[in-house]
Amino acid sequence: MSILEEHILPLENRDKDYILHHLSDQIFIENLEKQLTTLCPNYYNINILDIFNDRYNFILAKYGESSNWIKDTINQTKFELYEFIKKEIESRFDINTNLDYSYIDINYFYYIARLYEFFVIDYKSNVIKFLSSYILSEKQFLAQEYRDITIKKDLGIISIKKIFSKFDDVIIIANIEDIVKNIILNFEDAELVLELLYKTNDSEISTNAMVDLFINTKYNSNFGNNFCHNFLNPFLDINIWSEVIFEVKSELIKTFPKK
């Protein structure tokens, strides 16, 4: 008989079976590993952490009072899962959060949940918003840089010129793939990533939390030298490249005045 079985003997059989089946974080870790190692859209919008918390809060509420051991085991499992998320995100994106668990600091779980939302659930949309926001902020410079190239391929942009009233916007759309690729390969200002996202996502709780951690330095969190590379380069993947370009272009077109 396992230690866990000994502690839940007073419970009804169906309750014992339920806890033995569900008091494991392995299935969550396996799915989190998939989310953290792939750009597959199928995993983007599944908030595994919410599922985990719903399940464990239910077990804690139903059985926590009957056994301190079960309560402590559930809390330890939660801590281990959140630590797994924190370490995986820190490693993948080259960041240091300086978040350490403490009974005094109740924000530990809050900030890791926001890290998960920002770097996993909203990862793709955040990169798309950053790319489009950066292009808009640098539109005049980019248009000047690509002006001569665009003029030389005049026949290829006739249809684009019919849509937009400003030639700078025509230049941006006509060269969007090269512009996005160059940003991804050469951008190095980690704090500017958050600042631009904050301007466009000022109502997003996860973005506000990232600003709190990395710009307001509440916990002395910091970016490593490879953050921008690790954050952006996965989107050069040939399997999602056309989708990235389409979504960035769509965001820009919303703001460009038409004829």
Compact overview of the structure:
The protein is an all-alpha fold and about 260 residues long. The chain has helices spanning about 5, 15-20, 25-35, 50-65, 70-95, 105-120, 125-135, 140-150, 160, 165-175, 175-185, 190-200, 205-215, 225-230, 240-255, and strands at about 95, 220-225.
Structural category: mainly alpha
How many distinct folded domains? 2
Rg over C-alpha atoms, rounded to the nearest angstrom = 24 Å
Could you estimate the helical fraction of the residues in percent? 55-70%
Q: Give the integer mean of the pLDDT values.
A: 83
- The fraction of residues assigned to DSSP E strands is under 5%
- Strand/helix succession: HHHHHEHHHHHHHHEHH
Number of helices: 15
Low-confidence stretches: 1-14
Major beta-sheet overview: 2 strands, antiparallel
Ends distance: 76 Å
What is the topology, as strand order, of the major beta sheet? 1-2
Shape summary: elongated
Number of strands: 2
Detailed description of the structure:
With 259 residues, the protein is mainly α. The protein has two domains: 91 residues; 133 residues, no CATH class. It is 69% helix and 2% strand. The protein contains 15 helices and two strands. A two-stranded antiparallel ribbon has the order 1-2. Helix 4 runs antiparallel to helix 5 and helix 6 crosses helix 13. It is elongated. It starts with a helix and ends with a helix. The N terminus is likely disordered.
Map the helices and strands.
Layout: H1 3-7, H2 13-22, H3 26-37, H4 48-63, H5 68-93, E1 95-96, H6 107-121, H7 123-137, H8 139-152, H9 158-161, H10 167-174, H11 176-186, H12 190-200, H13 205-214, E2 222-223, H14 227-232, H15 241-255
Antiparallel strand pairs: 1-2
Helix pairs in contact: 3-5, 4-5, 5-6, 6-13, 7-12, 7-15, 8-10, 12-13
